[in-house]
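Fill in residues.
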């Protein structure tokens, strides 16, 4: 699934989790995006990484994104 194919899903997820999650979209071809992509071991696009308040990775997926899985992760164990 390409980046453009998941855009509507991410847009909807962003509005549903507003206030609980900040969505940051990076272009790994831009210098800032490249630095952060390297820091979080992004090898393929799209890659979705969920970080906690301390910047620790708590969830990741490559390709497709399942909004329900993101919600479950936000709710915690």
């Amino acid at each position: 699934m390409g980046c453009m194919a998941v855009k509507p899903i991410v847009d909807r997820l962003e509005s549903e989790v507003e206030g609980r999650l900040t969505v940051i979209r990076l272009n790994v071809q831009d210098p800032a995006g490249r630095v952060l992509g390297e820091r979080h071991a992004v090898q393929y696009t799209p890659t979705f990484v969920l970080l906690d308040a301390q910047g620790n990775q708590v969830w990741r997926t490559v390709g497709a994104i399942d909004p329900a899985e993101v919600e479950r992760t936000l709710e915690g164990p």
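The mean pLDDT is 89.
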